[in-house]
Amino acid sequence: MTDYSNVDAFLVSNLDASLRELGRLVAQPSISAQKIGLNECAALVAEMLRARGFTANIYPTAGSSVVVAERKGKNDKTLLFYNHYDVQPPEPLELWDSPPFEPQIRDGKMYGRGVSDDKGHFAARLFALDALLAEGELPCNVKFIVEGEEETASVNLAKFIHENTDLLKADACIWEFGGVDHTDTPMQYLGLRGIQYVELSVDLLSTDVHSGLGGSIFPNAAWRLVWALNTLKGADERILIPGFYDDVKPPSARDRELMSALADVTEEYKSRYGVPYFIKGLKGGDELKIEEVFSPTCTICGLTSGYQGPGSKTVLPARASAKVDFRLIPDQDPSDILKKLRAHLDSQGFTDVKITDLGGDAPARTDPDHPFIQLVIAAAEEVYEKPMSLVPLVGGSGPNHPFVHVLGLPVATAGMGYPDTKTHAPNENIRLDLYLKHARHMARVVREFGEGK
Amino acid sequence: MTDYSNVDAFLVSNLDASLRELGRLVAQPSISAQKIGLNECAALVAEMLRARGFTANIYPTAGSSVVVAERKGKNDKTLLFYNHYDVQPPEPLELWDSPPFEPQIRDGKMYGRGVSDDKGHFAARLFALDALLAEGELPCNVKFIVEGEEETASVNLAKFIHENTDLLKADACIWEFGGVDHTDTPMQYLGLRGIQYVELSVDLLSTDVHSGLGGSIFPNAAWRLVWALNTLKGADERILIPGFYDDVKPPSARDRELMSALADVTEEYKSRYGVPYFIKGLKGGDELKIEEVFSPTCTICGLTSGYQGPGSKTVLPARASAKVDFRLIPDQDPSDILKKLRAHLDSQGFTDVKITDLGGDAPARTDPDHPFIQLVIAAAEEVYEKPMSLVPLVGGSGPNHPFVHVLGLPVATAGMGYPDTKTHAPNENIRLDLYLKHARHMARVVREFGEGK
Predict the structure, then answer these.
(1) Which residues contact residue A335 at a Cβ distance below 8 angstroms, ignoring those fewer than 6 apart?
(2) What is the pTM of this model?
(3) Distance between CA atoms of residues A293 and A192, nearest Å
(4) Is B303 an interface residue toward A (CB < 8 Å)?
(5) For residue range A284-310, what is the model confidence (pLDDT) as tens digits?
């Protein structure tokens, strides 16, 4: 068994310096949905990589730039890290205890927008490489691909990967996120649901109108939107778009076995999120865990129309819109869902409802028995002192489809997430102990992979 | 026939001074929905009245204060003016060509929030009294009641009137608004629809959640709201609350006759508001005019939930709400409608939808053959040089019910509104020629009323 005492000693001694570097990265806003600070953040990411001797280049796309970097190692094997430098919008700002872009350490945690998703992961991986470089050359080639549109459905990444398969050629991939569950058990997520995100909008009048005037005779954009949405999903949660479920593969016996081995989340969800009840008559247990990830969704993420301030304003709104995401299960296809959505709205008489495609990812999964997955699992056990839980599919989405199906890579997850990490919400944070563990885990994975274990 | 040449000469000579006074009033924000500037505006209103020799008092209520003022005249007859000093919120600010609270005159119009609704009316009426006072005593007692919550459904006015019937004792009332149609014909509005304004809200989780996590298993406040709204009104525009239509009186033969005499609005509405089609299969003509006012409504005035910014945010919202107004027809009762709404939502399984009562007014109408109405009509013809159109009921709402049914007054409308006056919308404005005409009309009404004609 390889001795990691020097590596671990380096990481413990240099933790504060690494957190300071992470703090600088978090302090740089990089909100892809609002196109804020993206070029500045890409430049900072490239600078951080070059400081470790990587050749790093910034590639423009139709949206945010992609940073790709490489440093050669002792042999021809290549490990590819996938990360993203963009973050979710920080709103609602009033619910943050400290400003989202002024990272703050308190009570063993660092708070800030993007500190967990995904800047902490990027910084901790560089920190792991620092520990290996302190001992000499890297054990294998290491590449990074750090994109800037993950939070807006990675709209340009698949095309970039398709066009740059040589640049990104590798043997295995570590995914941007990972973490522990509420018992601090490290998780190995083996697949991601797909997603299709749309804005549905209705524009009917040239101006908002006094509701006393138009209410009885003018069409109302907000009503049209409500009626259109109502045709998408019934109160029984069944999605009503014809053909929506056609390509859904139900979970296999192996999937059910793996899901069953995972910790129960029923009470955890109730207390953490104040969930008053689960939908579809779910009571909890295995049934809840399986439904959580193996069923596709149609979620209203936002509604906007007319007057939204305090008190009353008697106005008939000219415009209304909804943000809606569909989470997709293998083998559903985002572009197919988009077509079916349009056809459904048209057939229901809602030709006046415009669909704006805000991006999609196809679902994809990696085989739990792949040797690289087994290597990542074994390395984790040493650091976390308990076996990793294997999760066949998770509820979130990401662009793993082109990594799995275009680059042909096994994709393993590992990271510092934990149940109260509040990604996409106010007070996003990381636990510093998990930051250190992730760096220790990554140092082991790179070395074991390079040494051919 | 009384000679009004001195009065008219006074008004023409002093118009600019009166507009400057109006400008000061408009520059004082007084947004009842947002509780901005109300006390300051009430004080300014009282000061303007006292400057004309009125005794003016500011009465507190549970909400905004009410200003009541009186000046004795030559006899015991009393004319009561009803006005309001509050205005609608100015949002969306970016659509104003000049700042809403920096009134600006251009192209024969004055622009600013509240310039038409209702500060211009108040200022023009004082201006009319100035012209009469320039000739000696007022021809009759004049009272003003100027409230500060008309734009939030006058939630405290009915109670104030009930408790102050002696203070407000009068023989006739001039309503806060009025105006001309798109052919510059002055309008006599003889009734107002009622209103019940509510906020419907759903609060389900303790925090917004990543949609990848909760989408398949947590209840979604936005979906609950959409489904609840959908039970209120069908896509055929039929309101589905049981008993909603029980107390609706259909228009009488006389109502239909009066409506039929009014100018057609079909093409006007299409071009002014960009209306792509009328609902309920309406094509235009008398059918459209009658449906516009003689049918009750259920209008979504606003929708709010989750992420509403640019691009996408994958969030499952903890909270969703809608602003909804119901316009009511004699003899529908707002509190009865509120009860039926609650019962309906409960019976449909939406006990999780909270109803916040944001105010209501009962509908009320005045007899077109009342002598005071005939006096106002005759005085208008001299100023506007064409007969007034009689409108049995208008689409808007207001607190005329307690004036008609508690104080027992005939209520006549007169004013400076016109089709492009943009009340409740950006670029609210008045035409200066109509400001002058309204002052001339009011001077005549006060004198003719005082002289017992």
Answers:
(1) A360
(2) 0.80
(3) 9
(4) yes
(5) 999 999 999 999 999 999 999 999 999
Interface contact A361, partner B, CB < 8 A:
no
Contact B303 A308 (CB under 8 A): yes
Residue count (chain A): 453
Q: Name chain B contacts of A226, Cβ cutoff 8 Å.
A: 226, 229-230, 300, 303
B108-167 residues touching A, CB cutoff 8 A: 151-153
Its sign, for the CA torsion A48, A396, B230, B281, is positive
Partner-chain contact A209 B425, CB within 8 Å: yes
> Residue A417, SS3?
strand
For chain B, what are the domain ranges? Answer: 5-190+366-450, 194-248+295-361
Domain A193-248+295-361 falls under CATH 3.30.70.360? yes
CATH code of domain B194-248+295-361: 3.30.70.360
Nearest to B328 by CA among B452, B244, B423, B429: B244
Q: In what order do the strands lie in the sheet with A109-111?
A: A104-106, A109-111, A429-431
Distance from CA of B207 to the nearest CA of A (A): 6
Which residues, at least 6 apart from A88, have a Cβ–Cβ distance to it below 8 Å? Answer: A31, A33, A113, A114, A117, A151, A423, A424, B313
* B1 band by pLDDT with thresholds 50, 70 and 90: low
Return the CATH number of the domain spanning residue range A5-190+366-450. Answer: 3.40.630.10
Residues B318-372: pLDDT tens digits?
Answer: 999 999 999 999 999 999 999 999 999 999 999 999 999 998 889 999 988 899 9
- List the one residue out of B357, B344, B415 whose CA is nearest residue B384: B415
**In the structure, what pLDDT confidence band is assigned to residue B453 with cuts at 50, 70 and 90?**
low
Please determine, for the modelled complex, whether the ipTM score is greater than 0.90. Answer: no
The three-state secondary structure class of B344 is helix
- Say how far apart CA B379 and CA B144 lie, in whole Å: 21
Instruction: List, as one string, the DSSP characters of A308-332.
Output: -SSS---EE-SEEEEEEEEEE-TT-
